[in-house]
Each structure stands twice: as C-alpha cells, then as structure tokens.
Design goal:
The chain is mostly helical. Helix content is 51%, strand content 0%.
C-alpha cells in the first residue's frame, strides 16, 4: 500500500514517528476506540486515512485478516477509520445479557483490593447503566463478610469512596493475618490450680505372687510305697524308688 488516498507521506510519518497505540481490547471495543480517538486528538491526527493508518498496528493479526475486504477497497472508502470502527464494534461488542451475566457471576475478591474488584466489575456495566443499588449489592456480595459488615453500617457519597474505604479494611485484615502467623505457638501447660487438683496417677499394677507349693515327695511317710503307687495304686504310670509295690499285689 504505497499510496493511500494520495497521502503516502502522512501515513509513513504516522506509523514511524509516533509510539504505538494501545492494543485492541476485544471485550470493550467501544471503550478502546474512545481511548484511541482521545490519543489521536492529542497527536493531532484528525484525517480519516491518517487515523486508519494509526490504528492498524494496534490490531492483532487475526483481526487484521478479518478486515482484508476493507483493506482491498480502502481507496474507495470516504472514511476508512469509521468503517473499521463499525466493523470491530459489530464483531466484538457483547450483548447486555452477556455483560450482566458477567457481573452476576463475577468471582469473589480473592487477592485483589476491593477497588480493583470494583474496576473489573465496572468494565461489564452495559452502556448507559449506572452503579445503582443492584450493582452495589453484587459488589458487596463479593467481599469477605468481615469487610462487608463494616461497609453496610456506613454511608458513602459514591461506590468508589466505599471501595477505597474497603481497601483500608482489607490491608488491616491482611496485616492482622500476617501478625498472627508470626506468633510462636507453645503447648499449653496446665495451670497451678489444675496441677494441684489433678488426681494422682494410679500406681502400676503388680502381678500377684505365685503361692509357694511344697514339692511332691517321692514317697509317703509311714508307707513302703512311693507317692504314685500310694495314690493311684496299680493304675499308677510312674514309680519312684524306694517303692515296694508289686503289681502282683
């Protein structure tokens, strides 16, 4: 594209002598174009073809490919910048239903500050919608209960003022958690009163001593027989000397 509407020098100067513009924000093309047009005004880039040339490098390659038909007939277009703007807004602008669902299903606070959470949720406000009571409620529901309770009992001029105050509560709560984590934890020792009233531990049980048994005598006093024959007679299976028992008896 050596010549664009007869102004090749202007296009070359725009693309080489100015810092690049912010890359396309796919979810918020209207907001992106508002930012782009503001920066183009500061740079005194006002002609349609110059504005078109300025934003081309801010578009991802896949988006540029979708604009190939516009590039091919750019010399025939009265306002190529507006043509690209209309095409991108038509392709990427989300419906109000989708945007409202993003707010309703937005994740909770996490590690971000409340003011950062508010900025993220505001991005999904449909055009023309205000930060009313419903939006405020969705924002509060994503804050920790310890912070939310403080905010509910106070009045703020704007939701931004509420978020900034919530930031201070968030920082204070975070520092309290850090302080609690650094305090060494020692095992609790019983109080003197508990030590005094504690019942003594029972003495260890001892095994009862086995009663002493008198060993059996091999014979019975006053008898000529041994203990076994004296006790069991001929049914005895043992015999100890001296024993005069005779099996024929």
């Amino acid at each position: 594209m050596d010549q664009v509407n007869g102004e090749p020098a202007a296009v070359a100067a725009i693309t080489t002598h100015h810092p690049p513009l912010p890359m396309l924000i796919r979810d918020r093309p209207l907001d992106w174009f508002a930012l782009i047009e503001f920066q183009l005004t500061i740079r005194k880039i006002t002609k349609p073809v110059e504005k078109f040339a300025a934003i081309v490098n801010s578009l991802p390659v896949d988006v540029q490919a979708n604009l190939a038909d516009i590039f091919r007939k750019i010399s025939e277009l009265p306002d190529p910048f507006q043509t690209v703007k209309d095409r991108l807004c038509q392709s990427f602008v989300r419906s109000e239903f989708d945007l409202c669902n993003e707010i309703i299903n937005h994740p909770p606070l996490g590690s971000d500050k409340p003011s950062v959470l508010l900025d993220k949720m505001i991005m999904f406000l449909p055009e023309g919608e205000t930060q009313g009571h419903l939006f405020r409620t969705h924002f509060l529901n994503r804050l920790p209960a310890s912070i939310r309770q403080h905010l509910l009992h106070q009045k703020f001029a704007t939701l931004r003022d509420m978020a900034i105050f919530a930031d201070s509560l968030f920082d204070m709560d975070k520092s309290n958690h850090v302080s609690a984590a650094t305090i060494p934890v020692h095992p609790r020792s019983p109080s003197p009163h508990r030590r005094a009233t504690r019942s003594p531990s029972p003495a260890p049980r001892r095994r009862a001593a086995t009663p002493w048994r008198k060993p059996r005598q091999p014979y019975v006093e006053g008898s000529d027989y041994c203990y076994y024959h004296y006790t069991f007679g001929p049914k005895a299976t043992k015999c100890q000397t001296p024993c005069k028992f005779n099996s024929k008896n």
